[in-house]
Each structure stands twice: as C-alpha cells, then as structure tokens.
Amino acid sequence: MRRHGKQRGSVQLCTQRVRVDRPRLRHKRGGAGAEVTVRAYEAMQRNGSLGEQLCAILMSGVSTRHSERVVPELAERCGVSRSAVSRQFTAASAEQLRALCERRLDALEVLVSYLDGVRFGPHHVVAAIGVAADGRKHLLGLGEGATENATVVTGLLEDLVARGVDPARRRRHVHVTARRTKLDFAEMIRELVDVHYREAERIVLVMDNLNTHTPGALYEAFAPEEARRLCERLEIHYTPKHGSWLNIAECELSALAGQCTDRRIADERTLQHEVAAWQRERNARQVTVDWQFTAQNARIKLKRLYPSIHE
Length: 311
Prior knowledge:
This protein is α+β, with helices and mostly antiparallel strands. The protein has helices spanning 39-46, 50-59, 67-70, 72-78, 82-102, 150-162, 182-196, 215-221, 224-232, 248-259, 268-284, 295-301; strands at residues 2-13, 16-26, 35-36, 110-120, 123-132, 137-145, 203-207, 234-238. It has 3 domains: 2-100, no CATH class; 110-162, no CATH class; 182-305, no CATH class.
C-alpha cells in the first residue's frame, strides 16, 4: 500500500461540516480496484459526536497546540488541523455555555446558594452554586464583569430568579416511622444536618418538650464525637410547656391529619406512599402558614412565662 496524493473532503463535527484534506491510498499492484478506503475518514463523515469528544479532551487540559498528538487518527489520517479543532471547540463550548446559562431551574429544590468569583485575565467571573435538598451541588449560573461588583452579583441573582429559583420557597419534609423513640429522633436530626442543611453553619431548630427531643438522644444513638458534631450545628429553642402549638410544625401536622391520615390506612408502606404524595403536593403549591399570634398577644396569653421585675 502506498500514498497516492490527497483530495479535498469534509467530515462531520457536531452540527458542522469541516473541510479536510483526505489522503488517498492505493495498493502497490495498481490496476482497477487498487484504491483503498480510509475507514477513519468514512467514520468521521458519519460520526456527529466527534465535537463532543474533542470538547472532553480539550476541557481535560489538552491544548489545541497538541491536538495532532492527542488525536492522531484525526490529524494523521484525515488532515484535521489545530485551527479546525480550535474553531470546533469554541463553537461547541459556546453552545454548552449558552445551554447552561439559559436552562430552567424550576424543578431544582435549592436550599442554599453560594456565590464566588474568579479572575480570568482582565475579567471576573462570578459563579452561583446551589445545594439541593439531596445534598448535591449544582452550578446555577455565571456572571461576568470587569470587577466582582454589586451590579454583576445582582444581575446574576435576578437571572436565577427569572429562571425558576425561588428564594422564598417553603418546604416540609415528613417521615413515617414505626415509633418515635430517641433513636428515631437522632436519625432525623442527622438527616437534617447532613442532608437538608449540610452547608449551613448553624441550624435554628424549634421543638416541643417531648421527652425524646433532647441533645442527650444524640449521645444515646451515636458515638460521643458524632453526637457532639451534630449538637454544635444546632441552635435549639423549645416551646413553652403545654405550648407546643407555638411550633409551626404543629400546624403542618394538623393539616396532615385533616388532609391525609383522617382515614384507616392498611399498612406502613401505604402510609409512607400517601404521606409522600401529600408532601409533594403541598410543597408544589408552596402552602404557607398564616401565623396570626403576635408578640403583643403573647405578652397577654403567656404572661406567666415572662419574668417579673420588682423594684
């Protein structure tokens, strides 16, 4: 087999056709049928995912200056140049960036958002990272400016809200357990700390005075180091004795009893399914609690709980 010159051709890169020099090969014996098919060239004419492969390689830190070494089949067999790779990468990466910055975020349940900036030459890029209810982090969007200033940050936050991030979103999480022991309570606290609010420095927790609702339950359930770690993340406030109704969670339990569990349910599995459906529907509707018990009402109704000052 020997080279027999080259011929202008094209290959498919993502949605574009790129002009290349196709090498021609012939059997040494010559004659009819001596032309040899270049399989790599034919594959590249049909393969629309090549642009994605190039993006993956280049995003891994490979410069287009070394494209001929990294993708030898492209450069050696089909004549793909560094400039063609650069143009294709630029087009593909711009499309990915556009899709990232325009995608809807309505279905993403963001609990916490973080913003931070990084400098690229004369530009500052501000990134918004969201922590979802399952604890996973998601890149929500990017903002660019000459400096990391309030205008850039405000524009980025407004864009996130326009694409579906609701900063005032209400959530409730309900679990069904066979009992309500100290061990059950401890597991719920660990999920609260490590899953739902894993990025929060301090979690304000309002509870009633049930005998299982104590930091001591954590020490009974976990090793001392683990219990201390969880306790240090919590700022606990107890409702007054015989005043558990002051906890808004009690309002949700009342709604659950009236809307979901006000009938006979055969088994625990069915109950879990029904409660999960109630939770999804109530979260989707963003139901709020119309809290009408003001501080002035509290000074009258809960007078006995306020300290008395005698001169």
